[in-house]
Amino acid sequence: MNNRIxxxxxxxxxxxxxxxxxxxxxxxxxxxxxxxxxxxxxxLEPWLGFSLFQRHARGLRLTSQGxxxxxxxxxxxEQLFRVTNPVKEGRSIRxxxxxxxxxxxxxxxxxxxxxxxxxxxxxxxxxxHGIDFRHEDFDVAVVFAPDGAPRHYYSKLFDEVLSPVxxxxxxxxxxxxxxxxxxxxxxxxxxxxxxxxWKLWLKTxxxxxxxxxxxxxxxxxxxxxxxxxxxxxxxxxxxxxVAEDIRRQRLVMPFSETVKIGAAYYLVHRPGLGGRxxxxxxxxxxATFTDCLTADAT
Length: 298
Fold this sequence. Notes:
An eight-stranded mixed β-sheet has the order 4-3-5-10-6-9-7-8, sandwiched between helices. Helix content is 41%, strand content 21%. By secondary structure, it is of the alpha/beta class. The chain starts with 7 loop residues before the first helix and ends with a helix. Helix 1 (8-20) crosses helix 3 (34-48).
């Protein structure tokens, strides 16, 4: 009795080739060369002791032995995929986050990957600030809640705290700060058409709105921050989202004054998940990600 394990790659090549009856199309599906598929099938035939295909000018045809073998081998691979796919999907955390949070989030996901390389995060960005798990297919999300905490399982990441930022060389020689009246010589960058962030900061610090004589609107805060880094003007940004840019001296804060608007960023996750494995991986992700946030804060 032959107790050796059959060559699984060759068997898979046989199943795919039998579906197409063409080595070229089988190679395209398997992402290998045509010659590689042909060699795998050729190596399998001596192991089995019979031919699997008849070669014709127009392509391939299964032999009687190949036709008899195919259904059972195909069923084995289909069962293998049925068993492994849920586990594979459980290792991938489907995450959604607003584009404005990417500057902050990516650094923490890199830290997560270093600590738990076995947990894969499939990240989707959006310009929307909320998420409805009843209609969206995500496990976890970063959301911005201007009117209090979301109603799902959540933890607060950070409050939104605003202050102007700009590229260092836009300051005059020797300057580290700006005087309020110097704002008028710079273009104010806005992620919203109503300019509410700038107006709130100016009002809070009793600065006349007349300094906002040059303005440029962008679709998202991330675009406005990128424009500020490229010296387009001065942007009212969340200090947490630009902390890495400030650390790397791509941006500076020319005012010490900030304004806390009452909104915050939250990490929310789906209340109930459809599988034990997926739930375990999500729990591991949340615990490790929280540790990364704590480490970064210290």
